[in-house]
Design a protein that fits this description.
Elements lengths: L1 H12 L4 H12 L8 H10 L4 H25 L1 H11 L3 H22 L6 H10 L4 H36 L1 H21 L2
Helix pairs in contact: 1-3, 2-4, 3-4, 3-8, 4-5, 4-7, 4-8, 5-7, 6-7, 6-8
Length: about 190
């Protein structure tokens, strides 16, 4: 089943509308959607390494724009939409500690957490809810999301075929590791922050 899903994603990655679809996923992931854009970014770069940096740029721009939506949700609509997103992922306790940390570590929270498996939507919503400086939020988001997506794209561009071979040989293991990292990010946010 995982192999057929992987083959479908690789075929989808070369579809003419793959780049706009990646943009939509990147945008939504930064504010409400649970699945990170890496699920599309990696196969898209593996399928077409010559467009690696274009793909990373679309991912970055759309992620930052989606982050601004998440910021707006936290700033203007935390009591309604923001709380719904936080409750959906059962992260109420972690969010309070996270919001309080903005007073002391604001920009570092955005820069570091934007690179980790901790769901970025929670960083964006918490930034808005804490009324963190919007200009600083945007430039920090560009740096952290750009670093995340461009590093992945650069590695896949440089070492594409060996990585693709590695992924295809160990697909089930890597799928489980990805799911563990994704769930671990949610758990870490809930219990550590």
């Amino acid at each position: 089943m995982i192999r057929s899903l992987y083959d479908w994603v690789i075929r989808l990655a070369v579809h003419p509308r793959a780049l706009p679809a990646l943009g939509v996923v990147s945008f939504l992931e930064s504010s409400v959607f649970p699945i990170p854009p890496d699920v599309m970014l990696i196969p898209m770069v593996l399928a077409n390494r010559s467009k690696a940096f274009t793909i990373a740029a679309v991912c970055t721009v759309c992620s930052v724009l989606g982050g601004m939506l998440g910021y707006a949700i936290g700033y203007y609509a935390f009591e309604t939409i923001g709380e719904w997103v936080v409750r959906t992922y059962h992260l109420e306790a972690g969010l309070e500690a996270f919001r309080a940390g903005f007073d002391k570590y604001g920009v570092w929270i955005i820069l570091i957490k934007g690179l980790t498996p901790i769901p970025y939507k929670l960083v964006t919503i918490a930034s808005g809810a804490a009324h963190f400086d919007l200009f600083t939020f945007v430039w920090a988001s560009i740096v952290t999301r750009g670093a995340r997506f461009f590093i992945v794209a650069a590695l896949l561009w440089k070492f594409g075929e060996p990585i693709r071979t590695f992924v295809e040989k160990r697909l089930t293991l890597l799928t489980w590791l990805f799911l563990i990292a994704l769930i671990g990010g949610f758990v870490a946010f809930r219990y550590i922050f």
